[in-house]
Amino acid sequence: MKTTIFNTPILSFLFHVLARIFMWLAGWRVDGRLPDLPKYVLIGAPHTSNWDFVLFLGLIFYLRAEARYMAKAELFVFPIGWFFRYCGGYPVDRKKSTGLVEQMVNAIKKEDKFILTIAPEGTRHYVSDWKRGFYHIAKGAGIPIVMAQVDGKHKTVHILKEPFHPTDDIEADMRAIKGVFEGVSGIKPRRKYITLES
Questions:
Q1: 46 in a structural domain
Q2: Residues 88-117: what's their mean pLDDT?
Q3: How many domains, in total, are found in the chain?
Q4: Structural domain includes residue 112
Q5: For the segment 176-198, what is each residue's pLDDT rounded down to a tens digit?
Q6: How many Å apart are CA 89 and CA 105, to the nearest integer?
Q7: Domain of residue 152, residue span
Q8: What CA–CA distances, in Å, run from 153 to 37, 46, 121?
Q9: Of 11, 14, 144, 194, which is the most buried if we count CB atoms within 10 A?
Q10: Band of the pLDDT at 32, cuts 50, 70, 90?
Q11: Do the strands 114-118 and 145-151 form a parallel or antiparallel pair, or are they unpaired?
Q12: Alpha-carbon span 91 to 73, nearest angstrom
């Protein structure tokens, strides 16, 4: 198991406590909990603000989840590369002949535990359709998708109880996944409103 900030005992506990304090002071709460599964793709939406990243960190430490994220390989070089790995980063090389999806699928299959976090919209601005990389990664690795709604109106992150298992009908699956977020407003609801139009 790779050593990260999420599984370093003292730091993990310290940041868990700090996250609980941060969430309480900010008025945010968590509804639900992450599934007890070794591997899955965790998506959160709507992504409407730069504060989403801070909220994400608070959520991850609050739930004590060993989450991973993708980042360009150039960040993982000396002298700061160790820091990005320690924070859960996984390097992807955009120059390789294999695409990002295939690189992540291979990485997930090699490890016993892997929780990959992705913002499916790919931007905090409104988009009529989502990027499908998260879906192809889950499908290729044979793992489920766990969904978290960022409800800015009620300052609540809702974690859906049942993981979503991709089928052979990507269009129907994407409609079902996006439908979960229909009508949910993010931290800055005036920037964007999730609809099923795509």
A1: yes
A2: 87
A3: 1
A4: yes
A5: 999 999 888 888 765 444 444 43
A6: 15
A7: 9-180
A8: 30, 12, 20
A9: 194
A10: very high
A11: unpaired
A12: 4
Q: What is the pLDDT of residues 104-148, one digit of tens each?
A: 999 999 999 999 998 887 655 555 678 899 999 999 999 999 999
Compute the C-alpha angle 121/122/126, nearest 5°.
55
Asked if residues 139 and 118 have their Cβ atoms less than 8 Å apart, the reply is no
Cα distance between residue 69 and residue 91, in whole Å:
9
Helix H or strand E segment including 65? none
End-to-end Cα spacing for the chain: 40
Residues 38, 116: Cα–Cα separation, whole Å? 11
Residue 143 lies in a domain: yes
The CA distance from 167 to 153, in Å, is 32
Residue 58 amino acid letter: G
Let me know the angle formed at the C-alpha of 110 by 13 and 173, rounded to the nearest 5 degrees: 85
CA angle, residues 134, 137, 141, in degrees to nearest 5: 145
Q: Considering only residues 119 and 97, tell me which one the structure prediction assigns the higher pLDDT.
A: 119
d(CA 59, CA 159): 11
Q: Residue 110 contacts by C-beta under 8 Å, 6 or more apart in sequence?
A: none
Tokens of 184: 């949910």
Detail the DSSP E strand segments found in 32-140: 39-45, 67-72, 89-92, 114-118
Asked whether the bond before 79 is cis by omega within 30 degrees of 0, the reply is yes
The token pair that represents 54 in the structure block: 């801070």
List, in order, residues 6 or more apart from 107 with CB less than 8 Å away.
Answer: 90, 114
Question: Does residue 171 belong to any structural domain of this protein?
Answer: yes
